[in-house]
Amino acid sequence: MEDLEFYKTWCLVIINFTWQKTIESDKKRVNHEEACKETDKIFEDIKKRIQGYYKKGSLSLMRRSFTYINELVPEPGDPDYPILDARLLAACGKGLDDLYKKRWERIAKIKERGKLRSDSEFCLINEHMDYLINMGAPDEETELFDSMLFDYEERARKRREKREKQKKDKS
Known about the structure:
It is a single chain. The chain is mainly alpha-helical. Helix content is 81%, strand content 0%. The protein contains 7 helices and no strands. Helix 1 (3-26) runs antiparallel to helix 2 (32-56) and helix 6 (119-135) packs antiparallel against helix 7 (139-170). The longest helix is centred in the last third of the chain and has 32 residues, at 139-170. It starts with a helix and ends with a helix.
């Protein structure tokens, strides 16, 4: 499957799955008709954007959408995980296990290195910390990643202060 086609299909499967789950929860609300209409409007807008990026042939916008939309996927162990995984496998030939495999590989590299190098790694490890805490991981594991997050924030703070000082000195 061509990259653009893969990203479009993957994103639309996740969007449709998330839309269905949202509609189910909207139906339990007091103003369920209004909530469902608003949900439909939001998800239709997202679908139109994805299809527009696809029609433009914009691989960078499709990749960015892929990254953002993957924030919506359930974690392993969630009851919705196998359902969405099966839908993605049927539509794209790849599933959530493939997505998480890459994620686990990145986390393992960061853990081995013992240091965060970018904002994207910071976000990845921050999300991983939430996962570890929810899964009741050992304290040593969470402490290791927590110290990496703290060190990265400290380095970022020092860089900001240095830039501010340089701006002040130039003025």
